[in-house]
Design a protein that fits this description.
Helix content of chain A: 25-40%
Main location (chain A): membrane
CATH architecture of the largest domain in chain B: Orthogonal Bundle
Largest interface: A-B, 41 and 37 residues
CATH superfamily of the largest domain in chain A: P-loop containing nucleotide triphosphate hydrolases
Membrane topology (chain A): Peripheral membrane protein
Number of domains of chain B: 2
Order of helices and strands of chain B: HHHHHEEHHHEEHHHHHHH
Subcellular location (chain A): Cell membrane
CATH topology of the largest domain in chain B: ABC transporter involved in vitamin B12 uptake, BtuC
Strand content of chain B: under 5%
CATH class of the largest domain in chain A: Alpha Beta
Distance between the termini of chain A: 49 Å
Oligomer: heterodimer
Number of helices of chain B: 15
Number of strands of chain B: 4
Strand content of chain A: 25-35%
Largest sheet of chain B: 2 strands, antiparallel
Shape of chain B: globular
Radius of gyration of chain B: 23 Å
Strand order of the largest sheet of chain A: 6-9-10-3-11-12
GO molecular function (chain A): ATP binding; ATP hydrolysis activity
Shape of chain A: globular
Pfam family, one (chain A): ABC_tran
Structural class of chain B: mainly alpha
């Protein structure tokens, strides 16, 4: 088998050190041409770092990269592109307002006499590319009119237009429908036949086994498995991914749950262009219980949490807090009923960056310090100080802008803001994102403490270790539905299997235009 | 973990002195401008002159206070000049004609005393502000466009009300109790012009609102991060509607005051006033990006602009040059503002870095 697939790119002893962490710890990686090289690992295992090294975005601290046997050192993405390496990032870097042809040639437009853009040549070459990819996409279509799957194909075409011999696809199917996945797999087969070496990153294990020829598993910056795909099964991958030991944030005392504190019944959120982002979902949480909501990107977890926080006026279904229906339709009302949200995107949704730490932490609970309309600044400052102390937020002064804090301390400010409203249910969307290990452990300890005080906690995460270690109950979502529910201490493989049920044989939901959704 | 020793050790005294100077820059500018004219311009320091200047400043300051709240939420209100014009005409109409009930076939008209005239006019101004707010929140029109639209509509309505003519001789009528109308703009209480007292009250209320009420805090939060504020339970739309209504209120006061001062209402009154108001707010440290600004700063900014123009007039500088100088001062203010925020952010970062090292 190896004979058919010559090694195109090799990394030997690759070490990458960021301030405070070693993202890669001596990685040996072989990339085979004319084959799909699958790369898999937990979030933070070092996949992206490895790909950034190959694509010239990052430099290795130690170690060497060989391209066709020759040592190379890309100092920029442009150099890597010139050497025939193309990368399609998970987040598309396209312009919805420009046409397909303009997108493909952005930044290197063919010109007549160096001034006038040669539209005919652009169009000709784009048409040729689309024929090569067997896609009936008109070069003059504005990109925003295409479905997300077609946009992904345009991104691939852009890489191919720059003569990519090596193509890195970072989670290419996370936003695709089943039918669009099939198209992508066909294109991948064609490219393989043309001798292109493909690196394929994904969390969907069955998909990896299907599409891959070689597999490399990363864990904490080290390669824990590398072999040809033949004979690989899901248990083998899971074992290599998470290893024997698990990070421990477990419960120390026996679980003692109270009554049901929150219930969602038949929640629906229609998706643009048909189908549901949240598909008739029901769940309940008991006082003192930590429920982990696990799933892949686009499974509808964040959307569900946003429905609870009244962010989607078109959503359907009913919520109950302590048995009483949640009829309030605005955020203020829901906060008053005891719901608090710690949003996924701290910078965009969680904090007012230019306001002081004190002002941020009291923002949701200002009425506590107000007599009619008069604000008791002294009481406000005292309470803020008490929360800062209780949550061990390390700051010089509560009057400094919150933007001057580190990610972990900012997250604690967001948590403090939520707790100041005396919530009964705490919704935490990716609470450990973008914060360092120490702060992470503190946040998890805090979650334990709050649950012990009788709060119900629903936390969304994409980290398998985290969901396994922290949850009293694990709920897995895929395609807007609950696809698995597990008690604490369950088998990791079963949780992973639930994230992509039936290898995503869902009906084709057309026109899921992610670019438009994020713009809206 | 007390705050004081850390912050003291983290930044040098030179930096903190510079930061203090930058923070107080509008005040420093005010003192500089004041001293300069006190020395250079004859009669500048006379009491009569002080009263005249404060009256000029007050008109702009009213508008600038309303504008400050709007800008803090991240918006802009271009319609205030037109609201001044419209409300002047409304006040003039009410003083001269009252409200004619002829359309109802009764053959009577209702006449109003001065207070009633003022209140009704202010309601009209707040109504225009309400329309701005509703356009911006319910119909999602960009603030610039929405208030540009009401700028034209209100000005047109002002012109239509009199066919473009002036309402003259607004002395009022003792029978109706409106003979005190001229007092609003030209009367004096305890040695200070009545309108300056009004400004003091409005400014104190506005400053209190900004610093000591939940609504004020919410205004800053909306401007700092609208999404974040909404998710924190701030009623963003209500806050936005409030600031435009308040801006309309301030503009209406100016309309009444000018009509009363001149004892006449001209439909073109207030043209380009909105620009002076924006200038005063920006000069006082209000950030056009939203989230930052102080009522006190805005008042000082209005005084800098007012003293600058009156002082230059007294020195006989041509009005063309005045315009150039005003523009330069505003640009300089914003440049210094940028320098200040950069320095301030750096100092805060240093303090927090020191704090996390210490912990």
């Amino acid at each position: 088998m190896t004979g058919h697939h010559p090694i195109g790119l090799t990394i030997r002893g690759g070490v990458k050190v960021y301030p405070g962490t070693r993202a890669l710890k001596g990685v040996d990686f072989d990339l085979r041409m004319g084959a799909v090289n699958v790369l898999v690992g937990e979030n933070g295992a070092g996949k992206s770092t490895l790909m950034k090294v190959i694509a010239g975005v990052e430099d290795l601290t130690e170690g060497e990269v060989f391209l066709n046997g020759q040592p190379v050192n890309f100092r920029s993405k442009a150099e890597a592109v010139a050497a025939g390496i193309g990368i399609v990032f998970q987040e598309l870097n396209l312009f919805p307002n420009l046409t397909v042809a303009e997108n493909i040639f952005i930044g290197r437009e063919p010109t007549r006499a160096g001034i006038d853009i040669d539209r005919d040549q652009q169009r000709r070459e784009t048409t040729a590319l689309m024929q090569r990819l067997e896609q009936p996409i008109d070069p003059d279509t504005p990109l925003g009119h295409l479905r997300i799957g077609q946009q992904q194909i345009v991104e691939i075409a852009k890489a191919l237009a720059q003569d990519a011999k090596i193509l890195i696809l970072d989670e290419p199917t996370s936003a695709l429908s089943a039918a669009e996945c099939e198209v992508l797999f066909r294109i991948i087969d064609d490219l393989k036949a043309q001798g292109v070496g493909i690196v394929y990153i994904s969390h969907r294990l069955e998909e990896l086994i299907r599409v891959g020829d070689y597999i490399t598993v990363l864990r904490d910056g080290e390669i824990t498995g590398a072999r040809a795909m033949a004979g690989v099964d899901i248990p083998w991958i899971v074992q290599a991914m998470i290893g024997g030991s698990s990070k421990e944030f477990g419960r120390t005392e026996a679980a003692a749950f109270g009554d049901e504190i929150f219930r969602a019944e038949d929640i629906t959120l229609p998706r643009k262009g048909g189908g549901y982002a949240v598909d008739h979902l029901s769940l309940s949480i008991r006082a003192g219980e930590i429920v982990g909501l696990y799933g892949l990107m686009g499974a509808g977890r964040t959307e569900f949490v946003e429905c609870i926080m009244a962010q989607h006026p078109h959503s359907g279904g009913r919520f109950f807090v302590e048995g009483r229906a949640l009829t309030e339709t605005d955020v203020t009302g829901r906060i008053r009923r005891g719901i608090a949200l710690i949003p996924e995107d701290r910078k965009r949704d969680g904090l007012v960056q230019i306001m002081a730490i004190r002002e941020n932490i009291t923002l949701s609970a200002l009425q506590r310090f107000a007599r009619v309309f008069h604000l008791d600044l002294k009481a406000e400052a005292e309470t803020a100080q008490r929360f800062i102390k209780d949550l061990t937020i390390k700051i010089a002064s509560p009057e400094n802008p919150v933007s001057s804090l580190s990610g972990g301390n900012q997250q604690k400010v967001v948590i403090g803001k939520a707790l100041m409203t005396n919530p009964k249910i705490l919704l935490m969307d990716e609470p450990s994102r973008g914060i360092d290990i120490g702060a992470k452990a503190e946040v998890f300890r805090l979650m334990r403490k709050l649950a012990a005080q009788g709060l119900g906690i629903l936390f969304v995460t994409s980290d398998l270790d985290e969901v396994l270690a922290l949850s009293d109950r694990i709920i897995v979502m895929a395609n807007g539905r609950i696809t698995g529910e597990f008690a604490a201490g369950t088998d990791a493989a079963r949780v992973i299997a639930a994230t992509s049920p039936n290898t995503a044989q869902t009906p084709d939901t057309t026109a899921r235009n992610k670019t438009k959704e994020s713009a809206a | 973990m007390t705050a004081a020793p850390v912050s003291a050790s983290a930044i040098s005294p030179g930096t903190s002195a510079l930061l203090f100077l930058l923070r107080a820059r509008t005040f420093v500018a005010l003192i500089l401008v004041f001293t300069y004219f006190a020395v250079m311009a004859p009669n500048f320091l006379s009491l009569a002159n002080a009263v005249i200047i404060s009256k000029h400043v007050a008109l702009n300051a009213f508008l600038a206070i309303g504008m400050t709240f709007v800008i803090i939420t991240g918006g802009i209100d271009l319609s205030v000049g037109s609201i001044v014009g419209l409300c002047g005409m409304v006040a003039g109409w009410l003083v001269i004609n009252g409200i004619d009930l002829g359309v109802l076939g009764i053959g009577y008209s209702i006449q109003f005393n001065s207070l009633e005239v003022a209140v009704l006019t202010v309601i009209v101004g707040m109504f225009v502000g309400l329309i701005n707010g509703l356009l911006i929140t319910r119909l999602n029109v960009a603030p610039f466009i929405a208030t540009l639209g009401t700028l034209y509509v209100a000005r047109g309505a002002a012109l239509l009300s009199s066919g473009g003519r002036t309402f003259p001789n607004l002395q009022g009528n003792a029978d109706y109790g409106s003979d005190s109308f001229p007092f609003i703009g030209s009367g004096t209480v305890f040695g200070l012009p009545f309108m300056v007292w009004m400004l003091i009250v409005v400014a104190l209320v506005a400053a209190y609102l900004a610093n000591r009420t939940p609504l004020g805090r919410h205004i800053y939060a909306v401007g700092g991060n609208e999404r974040g504020a909404a998710l924190s339970g701030v009623k963003v739309n209500q806050v936005k509607i409030f600031v435009y209504v308040f801006s309309g209120f301030c503009a209406a006061l100016v309309g009444v005051i000018i009509a009363s001062q001149l004892q006449a209402a001209h439909p073109a009154t207030g043209e380009t006033f909105e620009l002076n108001a924006i200038a005063a707010a920006v000069l006082g440290g209000t950030s056009m990006a939203g989230g930052r600004g102080r009522i006190g700063g805005t008042i000082v900014g209005a005084f800098v602009i007012g003293i600058l123009s009156d002082g230059l007039i007294m020195m006989g500088v041509s009005s063309f040059w005045q315009t150039v100088i005003k523009g330069l001062v505003i640009i300089a203010a914003v440049v210094i503002d940028q320098a200040q925020s950069k320095l301030q952010a750096r100092v805060a970062l240093q303090q927090e870095a020191a704090a996390s090292r210490a912990a």
